């Protein structure tokens, strides 16, 4: 249940460029980050980006693939440990642990920048898919998604596989939007009059995992109700 990790470039300067670009892209976005900012952060000359990567767009592709490959490997390794431990104990795997292993790269302590960077990639793929994003999704994220749905099936025996794929997709969407909430504006605090806040990452991830677990486990026959916005006669 592992994927071959994307190899790091051998040149130290190229690795520093990737590290700098990953940090700046996560905090500022790709468009707002200049090549000069990247090379200043990496302590290399401006020509190094073209020399090692070809262009800023090619560098962005390398950064996204690097982080997606890294996180995919970490998730599959963690998922494998969860499933192996459950099998050894003769028990169904704990769904909260499975969901937490998915949420950790986005919401875990110290993963703030990484989470935002992954969210930027997923959102860009959903809004403006390209050959590059399709390739990365197909190579890394789709096999991982199938592994998670298989784990869901072990944790929730009897659930329909088609339903579990939908619930996986909804878990992904919820995780992405939760991890990218504007913590400075903190709309949740304003709405709740201070009773809840997105600034508290521990509470946020607990709420996210509880919501996802409940949704994945749900077996009640609930369906969309049409006409709820129609005006009465």
From TrEMBL:
Q: Where is the HTH tetR-type domain?
A: 11-71
Q: Does the keyword DNA-binding apply?
A: yes
- One matching Pfam family is TetR_N
For this chain, one GO molecular function annotation is:
DNA-binding transcription factor activity
Record-linked InterPro entries: DNA-bd_HTH_TetR-type_CS, Homeodomain-like_sf, HTH-type_TetR-like_transc_reg, HTH_TetR, PsrA_TetR_C, Tet_transcr_reg_TetR-rel_C_sf
> What are the entry keywords?
DNA-binding
The lineage's top-level taxon is: Bacteria
Q: Which residues form the signal peptide?
A: none
Q: Looking at the UniProt feature table, which residue ranges are given for the DNA-binding region?
A: 34-53
Q: Which PANTHER family match?
A: HTH-TYPE TRANSCRIPTIONAL REGULATOR RUTR, TRANSCRIPTIONAL REGULATORY PROTEIN
Q: What is this protein called?
A: TetR family transcriptional regulator
Q: Where does this protein come from, organism-wise? A: Pseudooceanicola nanhaiensis
